[in-house]
Amino acid sequence: xxxxxxxxxxxxxxTIDTETQEEVIFIGNGVGFGQRxxxxxxxxxxxxxxRHEAKVDLIHAVTKNDPIYLEIASAxxxxxxxxxxxxxxxxxxxxxxxxxxxxxxxxNNMVISNPFSHDISLLFDQEYQVALKARDIIEQRLHIxxxxxxxxxxxxxxxxxxxxDKVSEGMLFAVLINESIQELEETFSMKVDVHSLxxxxxxxxxxxxxxxxxxxxxxxxDMDEFTKNQFPQAYEVAKSxxxxxxxxxxxxxxxxxxxxxxxxxxxxxxxxxx
Length: 274
Hints:
The chain is an alpha+beta fold. The protein contains eleven helices and five strands.
């Protein structure tokens, strides 16, 4: 049984589960219409429920922004569920907060910068496709268009909902990638084509390198000596990137990873040289 705590608008309602004492946000067409504080509420089929522990006071969180942003975030989560199945729906509030702030920046002509939006689109392609649908949802509801930089940020929120990574970790990964590419460009005195297949493959490799490290998995074939002898420059860059990544993750990376990363770096270098 649920009891109404606050009617947010006709389509959003804050309730309390009287059995578990959890606070539950219900979002659905007309879900708040005719409801009153402290009265019993019976959910309908199709109403989206977002649970939060009662020790967290949601009143301020759900009233500081227009409830339309909760509706938009819920619609985006629905799209993510269609794509990925079960996801962590606790992104509802941080995602709605982010969208509200993004719209505020756009309306006030504030510069929105995300230098890693292209990298994010390559690393988290499936999440990025959902974020593109999120852009359409925002434009349909608010008649405001967000740019690719904001699509990148929404991608990270969606990624955090389907993995152990939080948005900060996803952003850290994007920063690491960007710094690594800068190091590669400086070492080889070249400009990397971020749209090339070799670059995309290197990003994917680094993504799984970090996943292997976090899961304590190890590659089976050692290419270390081969790449160290054949491609010494690429090997030194790879070793530098691995050390930097170790510091960022606060976790040791198996030395065997250096050789494989060096091969990907060499492919990028060879492509640009040719």
